[in-house]
Amino acid sequence: MPENPAPSIEITAFEWVPSFAQGQVRDLRARWACEEFGFPYKVRLISALERPEWYYDDQPWGQVPFLRDGDVDIFESGAILLHLAEKAHALPAPGTQERGRILSWLFAAFNSIEPFLFELAAVSIFSRNEEWAPLRRPSLLEACRLRLQRLETALRDKEWLAGEFSVADIAMATILRSLVKAGGDDDLLKSHPTLSSYLDRATSRPAFARALEAQLAPFAQHDPRQKDPV
Amino acid sequence: MPENPAPSIEITAFEWVPSFAQGQVRDLRARWACEEFGFPYKVRLISALERPEWYYDDQPWGQVPFLRDGDVDIFESGAILLHLAEKAHALPAPGTQERGRILSWLFAAFNSIEPFLFELAAVSIFSRNEEWAPLRRPSLLEACRLRLQRLETALRDKEWLAGEFSVADIAMATILRSLVKAGGDDDLLKSHPTLSSYLDRATSRPAFARALEAQLAPFAQHDPRQKDPV
Hints:
- 2 copies of one chain form a homodimer.
- By secondary structure, chain A is of the alpha+beta class.
- Chain A folds into 2 domains: about 10-90 and about 205-220, Glutaredoxin (3-Layer(aba) Sandwich); about 95-205, Up-down Bundle (Glutathione S-transferase Yfyf (Class Pi), Chain A, domain 2), CATH 1.20.1050.
- Helix content of chain A is about 55%, strand content about 10%.
- Chain A has 9 helices and 4 strands.
- Chain A is globular, with a radius of gyration of 18 Å.
- Chain A starts with 8 loop residues before the first strand and ends in a 9-residue tail after the last helix.
- The interface between A and B is large, with 49 and 50 residues.
- Chains A, B: Pfam families: GST_C_3 (PF14497), GST_N (PF02798).
């Protein structure tokens, strides 16, 4: 057996995205977990601008990440995080409070926090020129504020959401990090210092920095505005 | 040991909700899973109209369901479904494609389908009198249509999302079922016959009927408009 076999894990990511999305694409979560757990991985790059039709067979919505781990195909970053945590034996045993807490916060990130912030990004960025966007924004901001206030109360003086650092923190930190500067929505985070410190703590981890660097690396090379790269 | 010990599982649900929400509240998912797995459960009822302040310690957003299983507390219906499936030994082994498929579809339901339909319910019901709601509706309907089309393509001629019937189907079926008649949004389902049959198949299961009946049972008794129930 070779000492350095080819990685069994392959993450599908975008070869290039516009600048506002750089460092925000969701394959960051899969990369971050691999870095935390010490799993080497290879990357399959696809075009975000022209999603290949065959890719919808792997990922029903044409989004990234998609993870192939040997014979196992997984889509949805939450499922990928759980798979990687199980592979790393980083989850407490089934039926324990410790595991229940991680599962609760993992789903909370994806179902109770991200949808709010995703809609806010739509209003503030993607659809900002639509007639309805500025009309919707005040009540949505208020809903986001209330939700983040509840999250702050739940986090209190805890270092991480569920005991030790876990995949739930990878999910929540990448979601909080998506509060966009362009729409002024990062004020939401500034007005919640507990969440702001939590995010700083998470993104100070060396594994996060490596994951971020790895996501950004191919973008310069595949910039469609740069036909003849230097 | 008694032959019928008190159930270890307690589900927190609402004692009453307005008619449009009756049969739609998310504790249905936890009840349905318990019925499928043959787990007896008791119920703790709280007021939806005046959420008790102490309840936020159990469930950060004040929502239902919250599940207590012996020493284990879990919130978020996705986490509760996973916990119950693990308790029932109804999940394939970690690291298998079969498990990966269930995890992928479970998170897909909560992160890639529900947020679209939840926003649609806001536009069509909860916020329908806001100035922005009718302006937002057409593009949102189009986004929902595209997402459901992709889901239909992924489901194709499969009976269930991930091999055998699983908690991913409990999640997806309850989410599809939330397409509301009041807003005319159930046309979305009618125009996707594959999804419509899938939902019929899921809700024809006896465990679903028992769960639904159990959710509805307390509502008549706690109707706030009926001070002197007959």
